[in-house]
């Protein structure tokens, strides 16, 4: 039996595998979502802190007035979904790198995905079911567009 060794400068021959490109798509998503999150977060900070009266103006009426607009609902929703997904993929990568035993890795991933699901579902519900004009709230706390 003779074994031939390829020449050092010969092209690398890839083996045919049926693997998916999940890791590649995850890598691309992390880069794209990171750039988009920078834009979303700085827009959020500018709207909340710079364009108005600063942090002292952020109260129930401010949030009610902001979330009365579908633009800001979608802005905050996209920021929530992207930040949670971006963070979850990052923590999943850390778990895969540092958890040595399969059982530990599985438990940590179940806890991670459970926390992700709870935060995304509750955050989405808060954004879409938020009532800027509750009937039993004091008038001075309500937004200016609420009926008396």
UniProtKB/TrEMBL annotation:
Source organism phylogeny: Bacteria, Bacillati, Actinomycetota, Actinomycetes, Micrococcales
One GO cellular component, as annotated: membrane
Gene Ontology molecular-function annotations: metal ion binding
Keywords assigned by UniProt, alphabetized: Heme, Iron, Membrane, Metal-binding, Transmembrane, Transmembrane helix
Gene3D superfamilies, A to Z: Fumarate reductase/succinate dehydrogenase, transmembrane subunit
Transmembrane segments: 24-46, 77-95, 107-130
UniProt xrefs under InterPro entries: SQR/QFR_C/D, SuccDH_FuR_B_TM-su
Superkingdom: Bacteria
One Pfam family hit: Sdh_cyt
Keyword Transmembrane helix appears in the UniProt entry: yes
Name assigned to this protein: Succinate dehydrogenase subunit D
């Amino acid at each position: 039996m003779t074994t031939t060794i390829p020449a050092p400068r010969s092209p690398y021959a890839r083996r045919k595998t049926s693997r998916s490109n999940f890791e590649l798509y995850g890598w691309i998503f992390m880069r794209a979502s990171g750039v988009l999150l920078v834009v979303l977060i700085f827009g959020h900070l500018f709207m909340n802190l710079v364009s108005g009266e600063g942090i002292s103006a952020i109260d129930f009426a401010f949030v009610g007035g902001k979330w009365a607009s579908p633009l800001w609902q979608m802005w905050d929703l996209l920021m929530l979904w992207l930040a949670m997904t971006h963070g979850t993929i990052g923590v999943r990568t850390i778990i895969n790198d540092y958890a040595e035993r399969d059982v530990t890795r599985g438990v940590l991933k179940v806890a991670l995905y459970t926390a992700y699901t709870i935060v995304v579902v509750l955050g989405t519900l808060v954004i879409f079911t938020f009532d800027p004009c509750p009937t039993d709230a004091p008038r001075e706390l309500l937004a200016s567009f609420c009926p008396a």
